[in-house]
Design goal:
By secondary structure, this protein is of the alpha/beta class. Helices cover 33% and strands 14% of the residues.
């Protein structure tokens, strides 16, 4: 059996293989009215195709815990019952295909209220469904971006509660994995990094203080998420800054804390918090960060970042660099990537009865 197609168990949940789908925003929800933040036919078709293609775990796009937590007005949310009901249709179908449904819950912080990438991705105003962003400090993400309102201690507590409420709703919607989004320069990552966190209270300054908000969110989510189901955390292992940024050393240190607070797996990415930095993008360029966390802490990890070929993914898992691989753009190009990789590597994978003639 190919290591890539061996089942993987976390707590009481067994995921059928190690080919997982990374969260990728679709920017396809309605902006105004009762359909705001609600998954629709596009989202169903998008996730269903990857499930029938054999993907073991599917993590939804960054799903906002509040309206102002969306990256764009077109993003999904899980702050109301209409969203929960619409998600049930998706989770039910994924489970029928043998795929584990997971959700990434998120707050975009100072990078919120932007347009869709194909519309330029610039900040948008109220006439386009936009709003005033929030952040740990009044520091804009980039030129042309608004200065966010710095969260008060009371507002921080409200956001922590929003993450807990989102986790409760996610369970009601049928999800079996919840991932807290702490990467890519969104709100939790903004608190972690001294590049974006200039606070002088108990949420800023030292590593312990900058980590406080993230751990409060994890504790709140873990308290409402069933003990038999796993909790993931996505992190940017580095800001790719030479100084005054979040570092790989801090990631290793933080991973140990996350494990102590009930996180079962670290989804290791990088970047996103500092504009116009140089990132050495190439095949598997982020895998070494995941491998280091796994080797030095024993925390299970998933690797992500230009993983495109079956042999490449197989090597990452079989060499112990990661426990699973998360595919992003490659699954956009090839929804049945897992089935093709299984044929290439000699792995076993579930195929819908309707597709048996293609085996």
């Amino acid at each position: 059996m190919s290591a890539l197609f061996e089942p993987y168990t976390l707590r009481s949940l067994t995921i059928p293989n190690r080919v997982w789908m990374a969260p990728m925003c679709q920017y396809s929800a309605e902006v105004f009215g009762p359909g705001a933040g609600v998954p629709n036919d596009w989202h169903f078709a998008h996730y269903a195709a990857r499930a029938t293609g054999g993907t073991g775990l599917i993590l939804t796009e960054a799903t906002a815990v509040s309206p102002e937590g969306r990256i764009s007005p077109h993003d999904l949310g899980i702050w109301n019952d209409a969203q929960v009901e619409a998600f049930r249709r998706i989770t039910r179908f994924l489970k029928e295909q043998g795929t584990v449904p997971g959700i990434q819950i998120a707050h975009a912080g100072r990078k919120a209220s932007t347009g869709r990438p194909w519309d330029g991705g610039a900040p948008v105003g109220p006439d386009e469904g936009g709003w005033q962003p929030l952040g740990p400090s009044p520091v804009a993400f980039d030129e042309g971006h608004p200065v966010p309102d710095a969260l008060t201690a009371g507002q921080i507590a409200e956001v922590v509660g929003q993450f807990a409420d989102a986790a409760r709703r996610a369970l009601d919607a049928g999800f079996e994995v919840v991932e807290v989004h702490g990467a890519h320069g969104y709100l939790i990552g903004e608190f972690l990094s001294p590049h974006s966190n200039h606070r002088t209270d108990e949420y800023g300054g030292s590593f312990e203080n900058r980590s406080r908000f993230a751990l409060e969110v994890v504790d709140a989510v873990r308290a409402v998420w069933p003990q038999e189901l796993p909790l993931f955390f996505r992190i940017s292992a580095t800001d790719w800054l030479e100084e005054n940024g979040w570092t790989p050393d801090e990631t290793v240190r933080f991973a140990t804390l996350l494990k102590e607070h009930g996180v079962d797996l670290l989804d290791v990415s990088s970047g996103g918090n500092a504009a116009r930095v140089r990132i050495p993008v190439g095949p598997g360029y982020q895998v070494p960060f995941a491998a280091r966390v796994r080797a030095e802490t024993g925390v299970p990890v998933a690797a992500v970042g230009l993983i495109t070929e079956a042999q490449q993914a197989q090597k990452i898992v079989s060499n112990g660099e990661a426990d699973a691989v998360l595919l992003g753009r490659e699954l956009l190009r090839s929804p049945s990537w897992a089935r093709r990789a299984a044929r290439e590597l000699g792995g076993r994978i579930r195929v819908p009865e309707q597709y048996h003639r293609s085996v």
